[in-house]
Fold:
Amino acid sequence: MTVSDGGPHVKDDAEATENSILSLDDGDIYVCQDGPRDAPALLLIHGSASSTRSWDMLVPMLTKSHRVIRIDLLGHGRSAKPVGPSYAIPDQARRAGAALDRLGVEHAIVAGHSSGSGAAATALAEQRPDLVTALVLINTGPSLDAFIAPQSAAISPSQWPPTDKQIRQFASTGFSRAGYQIPQELLNEVRAMTYHTLTTTMRGTSDYLEQQALPDRLTALGKPLLVIFGEDDRRWRSSSAADYRTVSGAKVELLPGLGHSPILEDPSRTATPLLAFTAIHAAQAD
Structure:
């Protein structure tokens, strides 16, 4: 791992995986880069209670044509988990923009999985329309009306940190079928979160969606948009993906047989529409 106080350390091999820690004003942010450094930038933002590792199986399919940048949002993964800073969506988006600035990225397509990161990707485009050239939202519920109430009981503060069994039960609706084996690395990173960061990040997503639905925000932005949705999502009604069609030029792709986490359940099927979209809009950004 490459650790830096003031910015990333650039390796001689421009295509090698590069891990670094960026020290921002309100906490250290973990960053991972793959692919040619001179290729169009593609920022991948993980969902709530997840991390950069959730993209591991998808990244190799993207690096032939993209400089793939992943970050752990504050409070997640290998990033810092301080008590004081805000975990509101606009603040998480601001940190993502600051990370791209530190990496010298001037334009990027931004992809987010699940509603927390889809909201953060949208907020980043609102804050930095010069930086974000296009958006990809993967199983991102457009509004709170699309949320499906969880069947599993929430984890209480007294149960923190949770066991593997508790995390699997809590996360079971993130997949189309019961018994999906969540990678152990992701279980470990949920447990490494604090109860404070878990609950405040989820509350931040709800607050952001409550203030204004994502299709309305995206219509005002006018950015190219691809929405990918596992049709068997057990957290957000997949029929709600149609709400994004109100955004001019938006493309909506439903993936039958897949649930809330197509990036884990079938990376290849997820990569196909994503790469077709980025091929067009990365070229336009150049």
Observations:
- The beta strands are 18-24, 27-34, 41-45, 67-71, 108-113, 132-138, 225-230, 251-255.
- Residues 58 and 267 are 5 Å apart (CA to CA).
- The chain has one domain: 18-285.
- The first strand starts at residue 18 and ends at 24.
